[in-house]
Amino acid sequence: MTHQNHAFETRSIHIGEEPEFFEGSKNEVVAPIYLSSTYARKAVKNPGQFQYSRSSNPTRFALEKRYASLEKTTYGLGYASGLAAESALLFTLLNPGDHVIGFDDLYGGTKRLFNLWKEKYDLGVSLVNAAHPHLVEEAILPQTKLIWLESPTNPLLKVCDIAAISEIAHRHNLLVIVDNTFLSPYFQNPILLGADIIVHSVTKYIAGHSDVIGGAIMLNDQKIYEKLKFSQNALGAVPSPFDCYLVLRGLKTLSLRMKRHESNAIAIAGYLEKHPKVERVYYPGLPSHPQFELNAKQASGFGGMISFEIKGGEKEAVQFLESLELFTLAESLGGVESLIEHPALMTHASITKAERELAGIKDSLIRVSIGVEDKADLINDLDQAFAKI
Ligand code: P1T
Fold first, then answer.
1. Which atom of ligand 1 is nearest the CA belonging to 331?
2. Which CATH class is domain 254-386?
């Protein structure tokens, strides 16, 4: 039976785990964790479906089918981390001296990776406020190859018009890569908006339980897929079968989790916006967000990530963070438990203060990954921590 025409909720449970999915399957309802690193051949020239687990592994194969289905693409590829997937893209698509245009507010580790490529391979990088598509077009150079977007961005939740930027990119023969980590494929499918390649930190909502580091790439273009499939094996940063199993399992509740992350986040963003000790709230689901309507047009939800500036500076932010009891002070996001962090000192400390200031990441900025706990418990915890500063 094929589930390709079913709704997201059905595909996220069944694709890749159909009982008859594998040659020699025992009709398992749950994909087994295939630990074998290598596979016996029937004959020297008859390798069968799997040969060596770095190249392909049945548990990963099941997951890669599901990745493609959830992003509505033809192909999916699994990686050992989000940054391994990003590295594979740079390695596969770029040559020394090429130029990339990125949103000025990207995950700090992505900017650090670009900086590494600047030093090693003379990569040109222009970071622009892609919330204004004309700034992207103005940054195009003869050596530009890629436009790299997040929408919403990490950590300032800026939103860009993926369709408008894809149209500009394609007029100039450029590829558009969208890091879709924040909304997950449940709320947004960038391929349907014209993007060429989707990348995810699977570590976040896709796996969903803060117990996996993983990455994914999804795309339609067969030629690029073949190059990526080749480099995936050649570079070797693949996920373990156990991690693939955890992701297959986590994905089954992605739709339920995302709805709950979002309804909690809407309530908490509203609470923060009214709080006298809060200077400013960044959440695309607030009507006061400058791209509220754009996000509503290109995605079916706003997600569970909120940032806000606390009144004061680093001192007040740190005092607040260290007073919380239910929110966990930790990097990362997208798990069922609420996490909170200080971008300037934590997730975005890998970029220079000058780069942070240019992007608008102040020392008073706090980023929250709203979990799926009871929202009144979460608000009570925020309340008692605000009362301590
Ligand atoms: O951590 P890893 O799985 O390698 O993914 C990197 C990455 C890529 N893209 C986005 C949008 C991300 O947020 C991340 C990782 N981010 C964090 C760890 C964080 O706390 O923001």
1. 20
2. alpha beta
